[in-house]
Amino acid sequence: MTDFRIEHARFSRDGIAQWTALGGRFGNWPVVYALNDDRRVYVGESRDVTKRMKQHREAAAKSGLHTMRVVIDETFNKSVCLDLESHLIRWLSGDGEYQVLNRNSGIVDADYYDRVAYRQTFEEIFERLREENLFSRSIPEIENSDLFKLSPYKSLTEDQAIAVEDIVEGLLDDFASPESPNGGTIVVQGSAGTGKTVVGIYLLKLLQDIAESRDTDEPDPDSMFSEFFVVENRALLEGVAIAMVVPQQSLRRSVQKVFRKTPGLQQVEVLSPIQLGRRNQVYDLVVVDEAHRLNQRANQSSPAQNRFFSDINIALFGHDEDSFTQLDWVIARSRHRILLLDEHQSVRPADLPASTIRRLIEGAAAAYRHYPLTSQMRVQGGEDYIAYVRDLLAGNTPSRGTRSFGSYDLRFFDDIGEMHAEIRRLDDEVGLARLVAGFAWDWKTKTDRTAYDIELDGVQLRWNQTDKDWINSEGAVDEVGSIHTVQGYDLNYAGVIIGPDLRYDIDLKRIVFDRASYRDKKGKENNPRLGIVYTDDDLLRYVRNIYSVLLTRGMRGTFVYVCDPALREYLRERLPLEQNTSLV
Questions:
Q1: Boundaries of each GIY-YIG domain copy (predicted)?
Q2: Can you tell me whether residue 7 is helix, strand or coil?
Q3: What's the half-sphere exposure (Cβ side, CA atoms, 13 Å) at 63?
């Protein structure tokens, strides 16, 4: 559609002078530019690129950058440049080859005339820059990576933007008035795919950018957060101690990787709940991702962790009580805290009780610190699909009728081999297609790597062979991921195996839990410390949540295979599959 060109020069007075002498599109035309050295890059847009380069030369943060590039196109306007700038920042952040020096507050996703055609040009510009070694991977490889998905460089939905703006205003007021009664606990609540983690990471990057801003910086007037970049707020955030707590090991490691690559976030510690509890420090702000996965007192996975639980309680509270939870540790170790949670994603009895989560939500709402997120960012089937899955597993769904989720690829398989073959085909085509399953098979391969864990329809499969970034590990497409390796992650396509731990009782006419088929020992273990004996109905709640999480991992599609024959027919009658033409 367009005929762009990329001009190059040294980021020096002489290089800028060359562009100044040329005039024309270098002085009065909307363009996008990039500045870089061997490890850092900054992307911007301007209608007067030579003037903007002179301003950047005065900025200490740009010191050492040596190369200028400017993308010029006769058809570009301000909207196109803002969009291209946002795309390049997101792609560079996700590629990981360079540290991106930009703030995250200028990322936009505004519509404009002929945007689809222009975005084809963006891909051509990307490929040209890739030839110049500004990128190391292709766009699909970048957009499938954790660096991209967990990056703070995101355009926010309306409800996310409102939450971030209100939370920052409230925190700044609290920091200005340390005795303010409005401090304490903030709750960001949302179902799967509404971007709770995005809000948490975006917010931390924004706070760090404000703290590290300089008087010579020019706030982006197109950002709704530009008003926060003032000297008073910088002073309030100077020296503020911030940490992020992530209960799940695999997701925590992915977040740590993103933070190490991102200026500003490199100063934010990413901790487990036990690491936070053992720190001899009270943080000004702690953000807890997947806060519903914080533990109450229960038998931990190792004797050492049981000792830590007791030692931390004594260190924090002077004595050990079974009523203390990891949430109490977070409260004791933070002056302010933000909890990102969804009670429907609690998957083990050791997780915070539903009653505790409800009290948190009610308390935050009473203090006007409760932010519900509703816009669906992950699943193309939308919030209707998320709600439908929950109703379906709860037994509240009628026959399929005319229900449809648009272009979302929802399929039902009767043969596991055929579902696996389709997953492998799609993984070759678009990447991030994986098999996942409920914990209804023993993990034999933990002690015998030559064994197989799951055998169905003559097909032998193994559980995930690593618990660290399994989704992106070599050979993952031929393995089966458990809830503990996929919760918090996105897939393009998820092939979900609903095991015999979930059945349909024809006589009772409802979905039931089969304890004998459930292999997660910690997932069905009673809690004698708290005097709790878990009934089948108690555990059914957690197993339904597990399958709800698994069935909402796929952004483009979800495939379903059911082991129990009665449940298979029950779900087949209720899943809206008629829009698909490739059903088995």
A1: 28-100
A2: strand
A3: 4
**C-alpha span between 434 and 12 (Å, rounded):** 49
- Estimate to the nearest angstrom the gap between the alpha carbon of 377 and the chain centroid: 10
With vertex at residue 284, the alpha carbon angle to CA 289 and CA 215, rounded to the nearest 5 degrees, is 105
Rounded mean pLDDT of 373-388? 88
Phi and psi at 222, nearest 5°, equal -85, -5
Q: Which tens digit of pLDDT belongs to each residue from 504-562?
A: 999 999 999 999 999 999 999 999 989 999 999 999 999 999 999 999 999 999 999 99
- How far, in Å, are 19, 195, 339, 344, 375 from residue 569 at the CA level? 70, 33, 39, 25, 32
To the question of domain 158-373 being in CATH 3.40.50.300, the answer is yes
Query: Are residues 549 and 192 in contact, defined by beta-carbon separation less than 8 angstroms?
Result: yes
Domain extents for the chain? 5-143, 158-373, 382-572
The pLDDT of 211-225, averaged and rounded, is 74
Half-sphere exposure of 495 (CA within 13 A, CB side): 25
Q: In the predicted model, what is the mean pLDDT of the chain?
A: 91
How far, in whole angstroms, is CA 61 from its chain's centroid? 28
Distance of CA 549 to the CA centre of its chain: 14
| Token pair in block for residue 435 | 């098999």
Report in angstroms the alpha-carbon separations of 466 from 95, 162, 408, 470, 485.
23, 38, 30, 6, 9
pTM, rounded to two decimals: 0.92
Query: Is the model's pLDDT at 188 over the cut of 90?
Result: yes
